[in-house]
Amino acid sequence: MSDIASETHVQRNKIAAKPGRKPKEVWKFFTPIGQKKDGHQSCKCNYCPWSQTHGEPSSMEAHLALSCHKAPIDIKEKFLLIIKSRGKNQIINLEEEKSILPIKRKRSYQ
Ligand SMILES: [Zn+2]
């Protein structure tokens, strides 16, 4: 008699793509180097010789946005926005992870 119970269970599958601990998008633009050390992955920028021994997503994003001279302008703008919005909305960010909101499209930016 547990048919109904298992059915409700199946419905939970809908949330397949959970927000949160997925690999950062910034890694698409970096090449990992060697092995992880102490939980940190060394990496190198795909556009220039810049590399980092502790691949921290925030500094990688900052590199692309601010200090990489080879990255395409649309990539730079994209990460510039990410950095800016993170600076302002750190608290809001936490709330967004709890309630699975649809990701807002870019606001029209003048
Ligand atoms: Zn670079």
Structure description:
It is built from four helices and three strands, in the order αβββααα. With 110 residues, it is an alpha+beta fold. It has a domain at 21-91. It has a three-stranded antiparallel beta sheet, with no helix packed on it. Strand 2 and strand 3 (51-52) form a beta hairpin. Helix 2 packs across helix 3 (73-88). Zinc ion (ZN) is lined by residues 45, 47-48, 50, 63, 68, 70-71.
Q: Would you summarize the structure shown here?
A:
The chain has 110 residues and is an alpha+beta fold. Helices cover 41% and strands 15% of the residues.
Shape: flat
Uncertain segments of ≥5 residues (pLDDT<50)? 92-98
Overall pLDDT metric: 77
Q: Care to count the β-strands? A: 3
Spatially, the strands of the biggest sheet line up as 1-2-3
Integer-rounded radius of gyration: 19 Å
Given helix and strand content, the structural type is alpha+beta
Number of helices: 4
Terminal CA distance reads: 60 Å
**Helical amount among residues, as a percent range?**
40-55%
- Largest β-sheet summary: 3 strands, antiparallel
Please report which band the strand proportion falls in: under 5%, 5-15%, 15-25%, 25-35%, 35-45% or over 45%.
5-15%
**Helix-strand sequence:** HEEEHHH
Attached small molecules: zinc ion
Q: What distinguishing features does this structure have?
A:
3-stranded antiparallel beta sheet, alpha+beta, binds zinc ion, 110 residues, 4 helices
Which secondary structure elements does this structure contain, and how are they paired or packed?
Blueprint: H1 3-11, E1 30-37, E2 40-45, E3 51-52, H2 57-67, H3 73-88, H4 90-98
